[in-house]
Amino acid sequence: MIDLYTWITPNGLKISIALEELGLDYHAHTIDITRGDQFSPEFRRINPGSKIPAIHDRDTGVTLSESGAILLYLAEKTGRLMPPTGPARLEVIEWLMWQMGGFGPTLGHAHYFLTYNAGQSPMAEAVFAKETRRLYETLDARLTGREHIVDEYSIADIAIWPWVSRYERHKIDLNDFPQVMRWYLALAARPQVRRGYEVPHFTGAIPTP
């Protein structure tokens, strides 16, 4: 059994979707970051950094935070969603790092400047709108002629997809990125993705263009 400490953010959704895809038993604990639950003494014993998601694996005793690290742990624990060796494994890690280091942080800033605080900082809006579009172009190019980010469905897809599901907050029209659109809708149709998207609670249907 895995205890998942999470909230309805792209980083949280990565882990619930992965757990659903892997068919692992888990219990979701709601950490409402809008109320400051992440700063509670109870949660800080799980993650002193006060950020979701985090897990505790009752079977192995492992407690882990940082969504990319958790995805790697789950893939290695089960031997699934990432090739065990070879170039394809490195590519999965490469695209996971692309999401962790660029796509996710940039899109997080896009949420802040383009949606939640529009009109407050024109320079920041211009910078993040331009970089957001560049990253979507990179993803679209990668998916040209490919069903998935790497050869087979992997934690790279799972890491990137929840961020794309916020495309409206990025002021992105997915019709401008047909390969991303195709890939996004294909994953959105997966029952495991749909179940994971509703953790820790249902907030609405998966957005579709």
UniProtKB/TrEMBL annotation:
InterPro entries: Glutathione-S-Trfase_C-like, Glutathione-S-Trfase_C_sf, Glutathione_S-Trfase, Glutathione_S-Trfase_N, GST_C, Thioredoxin-like_sf. PANTHER family: GLUTATHIONE S-TRANSFERASE GSTA, GLUTATHIONE S-TRANSFERASE-RELATED. Transmembrane segments: none annotated. One of its GO terms (molecular function) is transferase activity. Residues 1-82 form the GST N-terminal domain. Coiled coil: none annotated. CDD domains: GST_N_Ure2p_like. Residues 85-209 form the GST C-terminal domain. This is Glutathione S-transferase.
